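Q: Got one fold?
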Amino acid sequence: MLWLEYLQAIDWATLGKTVLGAGIGTGVVQGGFSICRKRRHRTAQAAYLAMRLAVVLEAFAIACADLIRSNSVARHLPEHEFPDWDIKLPKIPGYPEDGPGWVALNRRLANRCLSLRNKRDDGQRLIYEQCEHNGEGLKDVITQQASGCGLVAWHLAQELRLTYGVADPTLRYDFAEYLAETGDSAAASMRQRARTRQEARLKLARMEKMAG
């Protein structure tokens, strides 16, 4: 019978290898597509989180700039030795809750975001210490800490946007430039004050030596 002869003529070993190879190839292709889909999904989650974090960080940086500006025009009541400066650094707005986006986010950027709260709290402690020991340079210490924290937040927000292709915000005011300028000015004022104190100590030491 023709169908029997046809079956006998088939090279079953070759046919099996062909079918098996086709199956493996299909599995590899499908597996590759699955991996690509998961990777795109993780990237999308990270990009969305990066956008939300950037907005939070920029809001904090702007609040730091506002603090510096407010202290520059603070009231100085006659009965007070110093102007009524605001000594509290802005609080960092709440970050998005834990989720897949945090896992997908670049670890270095995630660590910097989470560590910013510690930097802000450390700066606040320095301000409180200055309040206790020397009110003369308090405004410069507040400005320097607000500037430092604000710039870190602003630059981190920019890096998040750049890394994940998130568009920059449209702002008319250059907050980063203002933070940098005021921070540099405060640092220069602190250095000048330190030199003045050093010169006063040396002068006093010479006078005591001459008197002795």
Summary: The CA atoms of residues 27 and 35 lie 12 Å apart. The two ends are 133 Å apart (CA to CA). The longest helix spans residues 12-72. The mean pLDDT is 85.
